[in-house]
Amino acid sequence: MPLSILKGVRVLDLTQNVAGPFCTQILADFGASVVKIERPGAGDDTRAWTPLTEGGESATFLALNRGKASVGLDISRPQGVALAARLAARSDVIVLSIRPASIERMGLSYETLSAANPALVYCAISAFGDSGPLRDLPGYDPLMQAFSGIMSVTGNEGDEPVRVSVSLVDMGTGMWAAMGVLAALLQRNATGKGGKVETSLLDTSLCWMTTFVAGYFATGRTPQKLGSAVAMTAPYQVFGTRDGHVFIGAGNDRLFARTCEALGRPELIADPRFASNAGRVAARIELQKEIEAATRLRLTRDVVDALRKAGAPCSELNDLPSALASEQTAASEMIGALPTRASPDLKVVRLPVRLDGARPMAAVPAPSLGEATQAVLAEMGISRSEIQALDAAGIIGQPERVESV
What we know:
Blueprint: E1 10-14, H1 19-29, E2 33-38, H2 59-64, E3 68-73, H3 78-89, E4 93-96, H4 100-106, H5 110-116, E5 121-126, H6 141-148, H7 168-191, E6 195-200, H8 201-208, H9 210-219, E7 236-240, E8 245-249, H10 253-262, H11 267-270, H12 277-282, H13 284-295, H14 300-310, E9 314-316, H15 320-325, H16 327-332, E10 335-337, E11 347-349, H17 373-379, H18 384-392, E12 396-397
Parallel strand pairs: 1-2, 1-4, 2-3, 4-5, 5-6
Antiparallel strand pairs: 3-12, 7-8, 8-9, 10-11
Helix pairs in contact: 1-7, 6-8, 7-8, 10-14
């Protein structure tokens, strides 16, 4: 349901792809009014990403841009930058995902925009941050997984490097950016002054490695790939069954005992190799073989039922359709309908948080490219003839000139 926590907060969105749009969609879900700047004739890169819905719209774009108004504006040209600066002067928040050197060259730096609007909360999202030798290089989620070491600990020992398939770096960066914006808005309520929020894909990547960093500093040993297992405790991984796989997570002695009893292997509890978590971690391979000797004889459903009845943490290994079809997913209300004109059956993922029992979600779907251009510029006091001249010069893009990819 639409929430009004950020009602009246005006956000200017100069981002594309995943991280920035996810940040501003979070703000829109909480009730902010978001104006998204897009390139005339093309728009956000994700408008061209596959897969497409039956209505020919990018599923990725629709998933990351609900609740926004689209304005076609070419900020690679001085007139476009000037209009963007005027919009920033009327906004409470601006979010940018432009390389630091480009921001400075364009005249959209924090110093410039905050001088005209001291109450502005300025959020800059970059690849490597605003300092260091790589500050002006581009960056993407898989690239950062490679750089930060995430890929080095993902997958099975001996396999070629693989990335975590979900966009955890991009979406994580969007989350941190949104939290930073909310914190800055709270600070502004107290001081009346805006501020600068900065985050990067590299920052997020290193943050996700927190426990690996802690382990490395504690032992000096380079973390290795463990497949579905973890380095801190055992058994805590996927085990094979007669018809699939089950994940078992016994994080302490009590849960280990429950697991062994449920699987019909109570003798493992007293086995000196497995008497403590440290011992189980050291004997992980032997423990896996002992547990799989039991799970391989049973169907996944039977293993899961037995473990859950015993209070031992576990889960069947679902594919996405199975996860979406589960009764628990339905009960979570994480999936909601938000149809567009072209895609009347569209469903989207809501925010993973409830406020007073309700999941926030903007009431309107992702916009068509440039659909709000004229309305937003008219609000700024720009006359119809000026809008037509800007349109003719290619500075802006209106719906009749710009069609969704």
